[in-house]
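ugh ok fine here u go
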Amino acid sequence: MTSRPPSAVHYLTVARTARYATTGADPADAARLWVVFHGYGQRASDFIAPFESVVPADTRIVAPEGLSRFYTEAPRVDRGHLERVGATWLTRDDREHELRDTIGMLHAVVAREAGAIIAARGVPPTVGVLGFSQGVAMSQRWVAVAEQTPSLDGRGVIAQHVLWAGGLAHDVSDEAMRAAWAHTEVHLVWGNRDAFATSEAMNAQLVRVQTLARRVTQHTFDGGHRLERARLAECLAALPSRQ
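structure:
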């Protein structure tokens, strides 16, 4: 009797639809472009809401959404868990393929948005990046390879990178971040009552970031694990404007 071959896992690259949200200036009026990364279990449309009331008049915000969505609550008999859907950037399972797909999606989103501004204004926008919570690590992974998006000033230069209440990526080398942050202002932001990003952890992170970037500033506010509007407004306004 012929033995059956063992089970195997296979891979197939397919096209899929990504989703992202925008707010702020139309491309023709946007001298500044912020690419913002949501936290675990958030959706782009929800995450971008706090930006709407504080975005400067010459600034466009683009919030890509992680490709993996899930119900954020455990199954319930009354099916109430079906009401809330969130997204995540990566898990530890099949990480290499997920990261490749996500980076490709981010390049496509930013190229489209920056390209629209260039087409309308004739010059590329000044670009800032903000990552919140889980989005800090994902924003770092993308910034490390942002030069592969030609619409970003032709060189992928990020003027400012805000790391808001999240841990650094463990799969990006120090050498890659030193190169990526060579001309970037890095800002660390966290709340003094954040149960996830404690002051102790964030101060330790500050010490490490200071070894990777030339210009590093820390900011705190009175609150927990959230985007605080006053501090957010300051971050958005601090990005240099290219008129």
